[in-house]
Amino acid sequence: MREVFDEEFLGAENFLNTATYGLPSRRQTEALHAALRRWELGELGGPEFDASVAQAREAFARLVNMPAESVAMGGSASALIGLVAAAIPDGTRVATVPGEFASVTGPFAVQANRGVMVTELPLGELEARAGDFDLVAVSVVQSADGRMLDLDALRTSVEGRSTFVLLDVTQAAGWLELDLHWADAVVGAVYKWMLSPRGTAWMAVSSPLADHLVPHAANWYSSADAWSNTYAFPTNLAPDARRFDTSPAWFTVLGAGIAMPWLASLDMAAVEEHCVGLANQVRQAVGMVPSNSAIVALDVVDAAARLEAAGIRAAVRAGRVRVGFHLYNTAADAETLIRALGVDERCPRGR
Molecular function terms in GO for this entry (predicted)? Predict the structure, then answer.
């Protein structure tokens, strides 16, 4: 058991797989167990989860520095991105990067029959040429290997242009200090670095873009007063981004309402320094150049087998072992990983 800022994490030792899913705190699991017990006894009430929804919405807004009233709740990042993809005009030119996570690119790729064109540009070129496109859809941190988008360069490139910017923060929010108030849409699933159960995502959307979106999943919960409008027709939609909400996944939002406000209360610059520092400890040991990412993709012979033998939990993505360091990780985890890899078999420097 590890204690981090008054939260306890049971399985944190040698857990380097937060880029796949994050660990819940003991406080979160106790709350979930209690809710499951009330469900079993038939004592559960739907309105009791509304506070968790509000708390998680506000926390996401703080983590990305967007207004809480601009934040909508959905079941997945791709479902929320789909609202944007469905609203763009025929012939829209979209830019992304090669190897981008399919939930970011898929909603736009399936619009090809309307003449929507998706162009892949390498990181660096994407930021430089972003203003030449109608919309940019890209992750702040790449899922496969942790490569970072140059946010300052992207912002400069689109300044004064009509380009819409959609940023996915699924692999960033929760460990990386973010100020994305300038973006048109910021979307993130919460079950990774935001340490919540799987089944909910959030999207902050600027007013100019929100005016173009259709709430295709309009439902009782997206109304101005959910519990008073369950049978209203036509639906009395909320005036803010809540009009894009889907009905909450109860146990997911319960966990998110605990984990996300806790993360949002922390000094995110210090969190980032901790996570990146551990990642760079590993990079240095295996001969890689330093980076500003908490995710490391390892080019080491038999890395997956070595980590499994050492009891280290990680993942294989795009042919390489991927590890990630979060708040509940320590230098001891990095040292265990380094020993398991064997520093005599180093990755090519500067791959």
Answer: transaminase activity
